[in-house]
Fold this sequence. Notes:
The chain is built from eleven helices and five strands. The chain is an alpha/beta fold.
Amino acid sequence: MAHIDSPRRWYLFDYGNVISTAPTPQDWDLLAEATGTHGLQDAGSAYWQHRYAYDAGTLTSEEYWSLVCGERVEHVRSAWLDVLDGNQWSHPNLEILDVLEDLDARGEQLALLSNMPAAMVSQLSHAPWTRLFKHLFFSSTLRLVKPSPAVYEQVLAELGVDGPQVIFIDDAPANVAAARALGIDARLFDPSTDVSRVLTQPGQAPVAGAHG
Length: 212
């Protein structure tokens, strides 16, 4: 009988605060000046209150930035705000890029899963690091947003593997917990830790009832 190889492992990475570093105070200041709204980085701001819908693709750029600015925003201005927003989330984490290059050189399979609006997807589509990934999954394309279990189910289906074949790196505890609940080997990323050590540590057991 012919030997059938088991599915190969995938490394699935988040984007914001993992591949990219967090926006700087200066980034937020530029966006505040352009929107006329301060405190956008605060958890309760309109920027974050409506971000889920924007990431899910249920709000257009004009609709989203109108909510953020508290006034009607037309296409030209919303396009500029999208550029500023994309820029502030595009500072690369050089340590992670080194790790990705190393994984790629070893022949590992890489995929990306990010909550990201369509305008930012378009802006980052030509970034050099994207060539390292065989699959790029974005919430605005999937119309699903982490930590919804349906996001991970869709990714597993498209990769053609079961959860244990995927090592998932994300900085949000809720996203990690939801992935683990589906059997994915999800690992919490912290910028202060050595990502190589995070990737080589023993896998984490699924967390029952942690869909979040």
